């Protein structure tokens, strides 16, 4: 009886060990990027992460230096038919118009108020800045944050009829999580307004407000009825686009990233700053090639133009993410 009992115990231990081995093996084989097709693009990402996280390996990067930066518009969520923040500004303009009767005969405001969608979509940089100054200032930072949050709750994209915060790219959400699971700190580095993004990036992307870098207008400190506030002024402070992105990264992070992800010429300098340096580096561009599930655009697009950076990707051996070929799904709500 004693031998039989020992045999049963040994068998149980062996079974448990085999079960644990199988479980660990199964966990190791779980795909961290299930919405990515098995293409060279996915392989390049996984290989890069493996190289910089392999302790004792020649390309190992300490966790403190594993910095990855992401553009927002067109890289993490939609930017067609216009930037989401521009859509927000246009709605703000319409809401504020009764207090500004002179806008009815002033451009670019007149076209917006008359419902000229094509004219609104073709606003140049000067027009957009002017619009931002008029609609984003004259309030405290807390008041602006509430306006943004309320708008995102009710606004709907004209094509997909969904909240803009649902029009985020599922493969990129997985990539953010995958990098963080491997010791990376992820930052958003966007030409969009930093105060426009901070109210929602943590909930949508898992990126905390202090890890969001963006364009800004000037603010000043005021005591209002005994309460300390920051008041937003109609004056530009910093444009976090093109050559501004490396400057913003350096001032906010203080470390050069080892990975950067963008989708347009506005991200060129961020990719150069990240990849043209010593050590293992990774640069990637999201190329919008899927007109059926999302949009197809590059060199001729008014928003998110990808021209010079697309050519630079070849010269610098950056990975070009082909949306149509590399992604199984685009949005979290797409059928699997």
Report what the structure shows.
It contains 14 helices and seven strands. With 336 residues, it is α/β, with parallel strands linked by helices. The protein has a domain at 36-81 and 164-326: Rossmann fold. A seven-stranded mixed sheet has the order 4-3-2-1-5-6-7, with helices on both faces. Helix 11 crosses helix 12 (268-275). The longest helix has 27 residues, at 2-28. The radius of gyration is 24 Å and the shape is globular. It comes from Bradyrhizobium cytisi.
Looking at the overall shape, the CATH architecture of the domain at 36-81 and 164-326 is 3-Layer(aba) Sandwich
Helix content: 40-55%
The biggest sheet, with number of strands, parallel, antiparallel or mixed sense and barrel status, is: 7 strands, mixed
Query: Could you please say which CATH topology of the domain at 36-81 and 164-326 applies here?
Result: Rossmann fold
Shape: globular
Strand-pairing-aware structural class: alpha/beta
Number of strands: 7
- Overall pLDDT level: 91
Keywords: Hydrolase, Signal
GO molecular function: hydrolase activity
Organism: Bradyrhizobium cytisi
Protein name: Haloacid dehalogenase-like hydrolase
